[in-house]
Write a structure and sequence with these properties.
Shape of chain A: globular
Strand content of chain B: 5-15%
Radius of gyration of chain A: 24 Å
Order of helices and strands of chain A: HEEEHEHEHEHHHEHEHHHEHHHHEHH
Low-confidence stretches of chain B: 1-16
InterPro entries (chain A): Aldolase_TIM, DNA_rSAM_put, Endo/Exo/Phosphatase_dom_1, rSAM, rSAM_sf, RuvA_2-like
Distance between the termini of chain B: 55 Å
GO molecular function (chain A): catalytic activity; iron-sulfur cluster binding; metal ion binding
Number of helices of chain A: 17
Protein name (chain A): Radical SAM protein
Keywords (chain A): Iron, Iron-sulfur, Metal-binding, S-adenosyl-L-methionine
Bound molecules: iron/sulfur cluster
Mean pLDDT of chain A: 85
Strand order of the largest sheet of chain B: 4-5-6-7-8
Strand order of the largest sheet of chain A: 3-4-5-6-7-8
Oligomer: heterodimer
Largest interface: A-B, 74 and 68 residues
Largest sheet of chain B: 5 strands, mixed
Distance between the termini of chain A: 41 Å
Largest sheet of chain A: 6 strands, parallel
Organism (chain A): Tractidigestivibacter scatoligenes (Olsenella scatoligenes)
Shape of chain B: elongated
CATH topology of the largest domain in chain A: TIM Barrel
Helix content of chain A: 40-55%
Order of helices and strands of chain B: HHEHEEHHHHEEHEEEHHHH
Low-confidence stretches of chain A: 222-238, 449-461
Number of strands of chain B: 8
CATH superfamily of the largest domain in chain A: Aldolase class I
Structural class of chain B: alpha/beta
Chain lengths: 461, 304
């Protein structure tokens, strides 16, 4: 089979994985090697459906011996099958990298015979990439559930990030849809990665390099440079409630960029509260960097799955990402976003606004003296905007016009703030009215009008 | 003298007699003395803009009687004299620019100084004057400048920085190289701001062991990299050289065309059903990847 056809098959088979980041580790260039890695990641292209492309995302093979109900590669399906030679894929990665098409490789695979066999082939590819092709860029590898711990360890020393995909958010769903997998085979590598990273962190903390880096970090934290407007104002840098790794990722040898996972949304009955609770406990227990939500796309006919005609729950996926973001960067808890008694996220308004509308007693907030934490709870004010307010109000009294210049979405924030004791009198105070206004403003916007037209009435799944 | 001013008293030793800077300073001084206001006309380069700011200080101009204007948009106003600084063939422009930069960096901090370099790469009309006002604010506020994000001068300046930073990101994202048979990697890229000089190090880090060149025919600038170097050389071009360099992307061989075809195949394969512009209602792809870059992206059928 020629390279072109093979790539077509193995890329198409890999596209369902939502993880797309090349972020999490900074690694400078090394002599005689190709590439570097930068913690903030870089997207090089966007597919026609708008998802970013930053890594060469392919399967090592799509010839699967497992039989997961929702999967286009499962053993029973008749479709063209292909498998990369390890060296061939390594070479392709470097070819793409040098043309500035990608930041690196995202390597996943169907189960080729058995998990160990598959992982060994993936390792062979990464060894060629790092060794023969001297590649110093980013690599994300998927752990095949059921692989032996030794192989997971080797894989983790070649890749920057590993992910073990949970896919289904409950044991029962997993048992019914993926007969060859079980919860243990998914959770064991996740735990192994977390423990090994933790052990390495402890060892590094005691090493001279680790101590030096820690001291540097403390100095930077203390200087006033950590506030105000940075040249590159990455919101994530200014955020609350995220324990960052004690040692710089660049010093790590094992999975320096940490691990992530993916959960399919809408194939099984779990509600949003359940998914957010699960996410929170994964972040807490396994130190996950990201959880990706993938709206279920009905590709195969199966009585255990939603009907083929069910629209892809895009908006639900979007709201889950927003809620997840609020948990990670704004210190929201799952129960604040979707309560056990109202377990679904509001599809009409974003979760931060929904929370504010349910807690009108906490508003209005006075911009001139509110704390960072309080400012961050205001819809329309993000981490960068909040920091800018803190900086700016030290030098001058702010007025409403200033807020707009500071990158605050005032149209959204105006219901919830006062500025020097004044509030926008044209903004209603009643939560129901605010809600109507926000929804109708959004509906009036051009893109939502087209969107509604295209989505029809149904797809608010 | 106010602490906030450039060290004007040392004018003599650092500006050689008859230099570009000295001539411009004398002209500004004379015009002001004659009751006119002055527009100092500079090129759209960091050196030229900073030196022009330096000239306004050296001539002891009152801030409201002097402004900066880019050569490509200079228009005479009544009662205003235009003084051209230009890039200058002598070193005086660069020397003065350095002095202004170091003075500003000392007074306001490295972060603010770095943002000045970004702002100066902007194609925006009125850029030199916005930078001028920001520098003056900085020289008078010192370290407080960093936090004074709501000052009108700082807001206008921040817009420039924002535009240039985001265009730098576009440059890092959407430059596409083609490999020529001799092993050199070539790219033609046309950003809206003059970003190539700002992203040279980025590409030098990625491609440490390769020879490459990126050409910007719009700004007549190219960056060149030789294997092993840690930075790129930034070179100004004339139109013919720019065109010749740019034409080299078509000298690709069969292997290169295969790599491009593979990339195109990969790109198409990534698309998911049920999530496209039609189901979403708006074109997410175009909003992330501005149409003006499409012709250079091989995945969309453009040339690299
Ligand atoms: S779009 Fe976001 S998640 Fe995707 S690569 Fe870019 S920064 Fe990362
Ligand atoms: S293991 Fe399951 S989900 Fe993975 S490729 Fe095989 S059938 Fe598909």
């Amino acid at each position: 089979m020629d390279k072109l056809t093979k790539l077509g098959i193995l890329a198409e088979a890999a596209r369902f994985d939502a993880a797309c980041t090349s972020s999490g580790v900074t690694r400078g260039p090394r002599e005689g090697m190709v590439g570097d890695a930068c913690a903030s990641g870089l997207c090089h292209s966007f597919s026609a459906d708008g998802r970013c492309i930053t890594l060469l995302k392919v399967l090592m093979s799509n010839a699967c011996s497992y039989d997961c109900a929702y999967c286009v590669n499962r053993r029973g399906v008749s479709c063209p099958r292909a498998t990369f030679e390890p060296r061939e894929l390594a070479e392709l990665t470097v070819d793409f990298y040098k043309r500035n098409y990608i930041e690196g490789l995202f390597l996943s695979s169907a189960v080729l015979g058995n998990p160990d066999n598959t992982t060994e082939r993936m390792i062979a590819c990464l060894e060629a990439l790092r060794g023969e092709f001297r590649f110093n860029g980013y690599v994300h590898a998927k752990v095949i559930p059921g692989s032996s711990p030794e192989l997971v360890d080797r894989l983790g020393r070649l890749a920057d990030r590993l992910s073990v995909n949970l896919e289904l958010s409950s044991r029962a769903s997993l048992a019914s849809l993926c007969p060859d997998k079980n919860a243990r085979s998914v959770m064991a590598p996740m735990a192994q990665i977390a423990t090994t990273r933790h052990a390495e962190e402890q060892a590094l903390l005691d090493s001279p390099a680790g101590k030096k880096a820690l001291a540097r970090r403390r100095r930077e934290k203390g200087s006033h440079v950590s506030e105000g407007m940075q040249v590159t104002s990455v919101g994530a840098r200014y955020t609350l409630g995220r324990p960052t790794s004690a040692v710089p990722n660049a010093l790590r040898k094992f999975v320096p960029a940490g691990q992530s996972t993916q959960i399919i949304v809408g194939a099984t009955p779990e509600d949003d509260n359940h998914i957010l609770q699960l996410s929170k406990s994964l972040y807490d227990h396994y130190g996950l960097k990201r959880i990706f939500f993938s709206a279920y796309m009905p590709m195969v006919e199966d009585s255990r799955l939603p009907d083929r005609e069910t629209p892809v729950p895009l908006r639900r996926e979007h709201r889950l990402y927003q809620a997840d973001w609020l948990m990670r960067y704004y210190a929201f808890t799952p129960d604040e976003l979707a309560t056990p008694s109202r377990p679904w996220l509001d599809l009409d308004v974003d979760p931060k606004l929904a929370w504010a509308l349910a807690h009108m007693d906490a508003f209005p907030v006075e911009v001139m003296d509110a704390s960072l934490e309080t400012l961050l709870r205001v819809p329309g004010i993000g981490p960068v905007g909040a920091r800018r307010i803190l900086a700016a109000r030290r030098t001058r009294r702010l007025c409403v016009d200033d807020l707009q210049g500071l990158g605050i979405a005032f149209k959204r924030a105006r219901y919830f703030v006062t500025c020097g004791g004044k509030r926008d009198l044209s903004a209603p105070l009643d939560p129901e009215l605010i809600r109507q206004k926000v929804v109708s403003d959004a509906a009036g916007s051009k893109y939502n009008a087209t969107r509604r037209h295209a989505e029809g009435q149904l797809s608010l799944f | 003298m106010r602490r906030g001013n450039l060290a004007c008293s040392s004018t003599r030793e650092s500006t050689a007699a008859g230099s570009t800077v000295e001539r411009a300073t004398a002209e500004v001084f004379a015009a002001l003395a004659g009751g006119e206001t002055v527009a100092v006309c500079c090129e759209r380069t960091t050196e030229s803009v900073l030196a022009a700011v330096g000239v306004t200080y050296l001539a002891h101009a009152e801030p409201h009687r002097v402004r900066l204007v880019a050569t490509d948009e200079a228009q005479v106003r009544i009662g205003e004299k235009i003084v051209a600084l230009g890039d200058g063939d002598d070193d005086s422009v660069v020397a003065l620019a350095k002095r202004v930069f170091t003075g500003f960096e000392k007074r306001c901090g490295t972060i603010c100084a770095r943002r000045v370099v970004l702002a100066c790469a902007s194609d925006e009309s009125g850029m030199p004057e916005i930078v001028h006002r920001y520098l003056r604010l900085g020289f008078s506020e010192g370290k407080r400048l960093y936090e004074d994000v709501a000052a009108p001068e700082a807001l206008a300046f921040a817009k420039l920085v924002q535009r240039v930073s985001s265009e730098c990101e576009h440059t890092r994202q959407f430059v596409r190289f083609a490999r020529l048979p001799d092993g050199t990697f070539v790219s033609v890229f046309e950003p809206n701001e003059n970003t190539l000089p700002l992203v040279g190090t980025h590409f030098a880090r990625r491609m440490r062991e390769d020879r490459f060149v990126v050409v910007d025919p719009g700004h007549l600038v190219a960056i060149f990299h030789e294997p092993g170097d840690t930075t790129c050389a930034v070179v100004g071009l004339d139109e013919d050289t720019a065109a010749t360099l740019a034409a080299r992307v078509d000298e690709t061989d069969e292997r290169e065309r295969l790599v491009q075809a593979l990339w195109q195949k990969f790109y198409r394969a990534m698309e998911l059903p049920g999530r496209g512009a039609a189901s979403r209602g708006y074109d997410l792809c175009a909003s992330w990847m501005p149409k003006r870059f499409w012709h250079g992206l091989p995945e969309l059928g453009g040339r690299p």
